[in-house]
Design a protein that fits this description.
The structure is a single chain. This protein is of the alpha+beta class. It has 2 domains: about 160 residues; about 200 residues, Rossmann fold. It is built from 9 helices and 22 strands. Strands 3, 5, 6, 7, 10, 12 and 13 form a 7-stranded antiparallel β-sheet that branches. Strands 1, 4, 8, 9 and 15 form a 5-stranded antiparallel β-sheet that branches. A hairpin with a 2-residue loop joins strand 21 and strand 22. The longest helix has 17 residues. It starts with a helix and ends in an 8-residue tail after the last helix.
């Protein structure tokens, strides 16, 4: 898979008229520090600058960006891409602003359906820090590949403002566009864990822009424990296990969003099945069959699977007794010896009300009875036994 991606990247650079840099021969040199899951249907742009802010999990002295036009229907050209430490809102620390090149060139074009990795960039990247990526679209764009829910503000300004300390007349957007990952080189890095799920993983109803999603909190726990493990958030709000909808289904996107992530060693199989239970009411057995297949494919790729039980959702608009029976069946399977899971994170036990186990404990409920609040996000992050990430 890595070889195919490299060939595709070289082909894209050739289209852009760039001379490819020497390929990285050891994929394990790179470990993901930040990522989002790609979706179709992103907005178009004019000749504008897009400044996007991301929160790292681990740091390093060398970084690269990963860009995606996978769901685009036309070539996408980016120019004057720059990386800098964020100073909040659309502002950057201009003294850290660093040019990012592609095969030595400042401009690169991705064909429709293609993805692209930047050249390695010398950059002092801190762990758990906000970093801004600025890019100019000299020819504008048609519909882009995006991640619909960023849980923070990003910014769009007119013309080329990529090197400016802030964007003048910036429009605020709450999604990510054509940016799919940031990787680091750090000899102490142990690998990356991917959180694969739906809106709970995506951080819906956690404090906006505060970095309080449970994968963010897990990254900080690991850092405090002296561990250098990248934490990559592959949650998509509204995502499902059995069928497409808000993004491709979990089995369809498993290769791209998990198994192909740089340095991946573990995946946390989280909350996507809740949307199946609420919207479609499949049987527990249908979900279990799909989960078995995801677990087996991950193992075939050498990735260990940490299975999280499904959190309660009684009181949510789409809860039903059939859906609750399915949740209980899935949780019993995940806790059982025959699941194939390499570890179990019992989020159900960590968050439910002991007096009404189908519901959230009140202090963890955001109010919609489906998504945890900040305290609930903390309870989920703290339920992860760090010894499972060994």
């Amino acid at each position: 898979m890595v070889g195919k991606m490299l060939v595709a990247a070289l082909a894209v650079l050739a289209v852009a008229g760039c001379t490819p840099a020497a390929p990285v021969t050891e994929a394990a040199d790179w470990v993901g520090s930040w990522a989002v899951a790609a979706q179709s249907g992103g907005r178009s742009f004019g000749r504008q600058t897009v400044r996007q802010v991301l929160r790292t999990s681990i740091g390093g002295s060398t970084v690269r960006l990963r860009l995606s036009n996978e769901f685009g229907d036309a070539p996408l050209t980016l120019a004057n891409v720059r990386l800098a430490l964020s100073e909040g809102d659309a502002a950057i620390d201009a003294s850290t602003s660093t040019a990012v090149t592609f095969g030595g060139a400042a401009t690169a074009t991705m064909a429709a359906g293609a993805s692209l990795e930047s050249d390695p960039v010398a950059f002092a990247l801190p762990a758990s820090a906000d970093v801004a990526v600025s890019a100019y679209l000299p020819g504008g764009s048609k519909a882009t590949t995006w991640h619909s829910f960023a849980n923070r503000h990003n910014y769009v300004g007119a013309d080329d403002q990529t090197a400016d300390a802030t964007l003048t007349g910036a429009e605020t957007v709450d999604s990510y566009f054509f940016l799919s990952g940031l990787d680091v080189r750090d000899p102490s890095a142990e690998g990356a864990v991917v959180a694969l799920g739906a809106s709970i993983t995506d951080g819906f109803d956690s404090a906006f822009g505060a970095g309080r999603r449970w994968p963010d909190l897990l990254a900080r726990r690991l850092g405090t424990a002296g561990r250098t493990v990248g934490v990559l958030n592959a949650g998509i709000s509204g995502n499902k296990l059995l069928r497409d909808g808000a993004g491709e289904s979990v089995p369809k996107r498993l290769e791209r969003d998990v198994l192909s992530q740089p340095g991946v060693r573990w995946v946390v199989l989280s909350d996507a099945a809740i949307n199946d239970l609420g919207d479609d009411s499949p049987s527990g057995e249908q979900l279990i069959t799909a989960l078995r297949a995801v677990i087996d494919r991950s193992h075939d790729a050498g990735v260990r699977v940490l299975c999280s039980t499904l959190t309660p959702f009684k009181g949510a608009d789409y809860w039903s007794t059939r859906g609750e029976a399915g949740r209980e069946a899935v949780n019993a399977f995940l806790r059982g010896a025959s699941s194939g899971c390499d570890g179990v994170i019992d989020l159900d036990a960590a968050t439910h009300d002991p007096d009404d186990p189908a519901r959230y404990l009140a202090r963890y409920d955001s109010g919609d009875h489906l998504h945890p609040d900040d305290a609930g996000m903390r309870a989920i992050a703290e339920a992860v036994d760090l010894s499972l990430l060994r």
